Amino acid sequence: MTTSRFDPEPVCCGVCKRLAHGIGYAPKQGKPVLWLCTNVDCIALGETVFKMAPKTLSAHELMALDDAGGKAGAYLEGIGKFDLTTLSATEWMEFLRTVLNGYGESMRERLLNHKAPF
Length: 118
Ligand SMILES: [Zn+2]
Description:
elongated, 2 strands, mainly alpha, binds zinc ion
């Protein structure tokens, strides 16, 4: 799942995949930069993610995506709808927001708590 963590310019946060904001981690000038968003936990995790082996990072990403899916499922259960075609436009956007935000929250939590990626 891991794509390039080192975009030449800020695009996506290397931790949560939200919009990066010109903050980045690089061990030395002239080295690739891991761009980050403005979330304080993402900034704190920049070095950890930069140094993480791609296989380990991918495993964390898959687990975070699974966690986000669980949160989105809980949202659907909360509104009593399980057929995505029956969601209103507002419910659909909330479902998507739950996946997107849930992924970032889970990545930060997993990496801050050093959860094993399995
Ligand atoms: Zn972030």
